[in-house]
Write a structure and sequence with these properties.
18% strand; 5 helices; single chain; globular; 5-stranded mixed beta sheet
């Protein structure tokens, strides 16, 4: 089987791409252990899947017409239902080394994928609430807000 590996890291404060490299290395080893051929590795580094920004790697993945997709975890590939529906439209299976196989060729598999994605969306929204609360607490305490490399506030 030929697979296209997709890796993503939401925040890379140092810009060293070590997180996406770790994911890619694990995915390559996973594919090799199964006798799969890696067609291509596509990465989105330092890009959130929930921010609404275009993920160039994700767009390239969809356009590449993969035979199958391999990712480190499904939440690296999809966090929103609209993104899942675009993957479903590819009519390919998704293999996640830390979340299992999503068989998108069956109604049950698509239902499972939609459920998993709903929980990923939920976790993304909950994380945002925790971050906002932490930022508000820091502001009330006079602590500089550190959202990235440079503090401000």
């Amino acid at each position: 089987m030929n697979v296209t590996i997709y890796v993503r890291l939401s925040l890379d404060q140092r810009g060293d791409e070590l997180g996406v490299q770790r994911q890619a290395d694990e995915c390559r080893a996973f594919a090799e252990s199964r006798g799969w051929t890696v067609r291509e590795v596509i990465a989105d580094n330092d890009i959130s899947a929930t921010s609404g920004k275009v993920r160039p790697g994700f767009e390239r993945l969809l356009a590449s017409k993969p035979e199958a997709i391999l990712c480190w975890h499904t939440d690296r590939l999809i966090r929103k239902t609209e993104d899942l529906e675009r993957v479903i439209d590819l009519s390919v299976n998704v293999h996640a080394i830390h979340a299992g196989h999503l068989d998108l060729s069956t109604p049950a598999g698509r239902a499972t994928a939609r459920t998993v994605t709903a929980w990923a969306t939920y976790e993304g929204e909950q994380k945002a609430l925790r971050q906002k609360a932490s930022n508000l607490q820091a502001a009330k305490n006079g602590t500089p807000h550190k959202a990235g490399i440079r503090p401000f506030g």
